[in-house]
Structure formats: structure tokens, C-alpha cells
Amino acid sequence: MPPKGHEKAVRRSIPGLASLPRPVYGRTESLPNRALTRRHSHPWVQLSYAICGVLEIHTSAGRFVAPPQRAVWIPAGVPHRVFSSPHTEMRSLYLDCSVTSWAVERCQVLAVSDLLRELIRRFSELPVEYAEDGPDGRLAQVLLDQLAAAPQVDLMLPLPVDSRLRQIYRSLSLHPEQATTLGQWSQKLGVSEKTLSRLFLRDTGLTYRAWRQRLRLLSALPDLERGERVTDVALGCGYESVSAFIAAFRQQFDATPGEFFR
């Protein structure tokens, strides 16, 4: 996945739809390899969801991460790229703006309840041109009602705008395990530590330390979802001990890694 970026990704095609065949349209896709799409946008809302695997949606504002039981809401017209871990089973929804008047106009990660998950599964099995005035149309309406009620979860890394901070982001995305301090970055970039600290707060709303911790923990999610040992994941993203990793994970996500993926 791009945060660690060592495996080569397969470029994934974007469906060439001129318009949606129905106000709610489901798309099923199996992605055996790590995949990415080019930067693009849609004239409709997209819900990127995977029943297994981890999705990342990158916009100019941030990285939105969706392991199973979470999905990313992408408003119409927002340029984005989609990254997926190997062996991802996608069940995306495309929604006409006429049926999402209740929605916020920004990307966000949503919690997917058991009921919403099963509704998405069932909807993905319907014919493309299902009867809107029959049971299938009513199923689509229940699905929309559940999406409107889905709570937002904090699985987003805000991205800095400043070009110097972008250098830090690119470096840490490839190697989240590195322990470079803000003082060391200031020497490399030829700017004072105080200035970098102020820029991080301005661009991300977080201190450098808190922002780096969130980047590390979000980067760990694909490996944890694949079932890799917590010890290996903790060391791979820069933590000196499993206990320190679990404590940071619990602080960020209000759950241990085992509870998070259960």
C-alpha cells in the first residue's frame, strides 16, 4: 500500500459510465493484487467499501482509510485516488446527488453496521436495471436510510499544504518506522523547528508528534487486517515495543488491534 510503497501496484481502470442506470448503482470488484487508480472524480457520490482488504482514498485534504466495517464517502466532484491492499473485495456504491441531499459535502470515513453491510452485500447482487417501484427499489431506499444514519469515524490523516511538510509526509509514508525528530527535519530542510511546528498545526491541526503517530497507526492497518503478527507490525512502523504500540493504538482507535478487526 502506498504508505509503505514497496510492492508494485497494478493500475486499476475507472468505469466509463456516462450516467448512472439507477439512482443507486452497485459495483462489485475482486482485486487480487495491490491496486491503484489515477486521480479522477465523478459527477455522483461514491461510497468506497470493501468486505475484506483495506481501502485508502487520497484527496488534496487527506488520506481516508477504510478497513472492513468502514467505508469512505466521496462527494461528487472531489478529485481522488483509490488504493487497495491485496485480495480486496470491493462493493462500491454510486449514488445520484438527487438521493443524497442529506449528505455532507466532504470526504469522511463511515462506520458500517452489520445491517448496512448485509444491505450492501444484497444490493450488489441485484440486476443493474432493477425495478425501482418493486422490492429492489425499496431495498435501495432502506440502504440510503442506513447510509444517512451511519456515524463518522476518525480514520483520516490530514495532509499538509506546505511544500516542506510535504517532503516529510512523502518520506514517512514510505518509511513510517523512521524516528526522525522535528529538530532533525528542521536541519535537513533549512528551517527552524519552531516554524515547522507552527506549520504542522496550521496545515493539519496536529502537532508533529501526534500527526506522525496517526500516520504510523493508519499505515499499520493493512498488515493487521492481513493477520500479520502484532509484534512485527509494531516494529515495522517504528514502535520499540508491542505494549507501546497497543497503547497508542487504543488511544487512537479506542480498541486494541484484536478488538478493532474482530
TrEMBL record:
Coiled-coil intervals: none
Under Gene3D superfamilies, the record lists: Homeodomain-like, Jelly Rolls
**PROSITE patterns in the record, alphabetically?**
HTH_ARAC_FAMILY_1, HTH_ARAC_FAMILY_2
Whether Transcription regulation counts among this entry's keywords is yes
Q: Where is the HTH araC/xylS-type domain?
A: 166-262
Give a Pfam family name.
AraC_binding
- Keywords for the protein's UniProt record, in alphabetical order: Activator, DNA-binding, Transcription, Transcription regulation
Q: Which PANTHER family does the record match to this protein?
A: HTH-TYPE TRANSCRIPTIONAL REGULATOR NIMR (PTHR11019), TRANSCRIPTIONAL REGULATOR-RELATED (PTHR11019:SF159)
Any idea what this protein is called? Answer: Helix-turn-helix transcriptional regulator
Naturally occurring in which organism (per UniProt)? Pseudomonas shahriarae
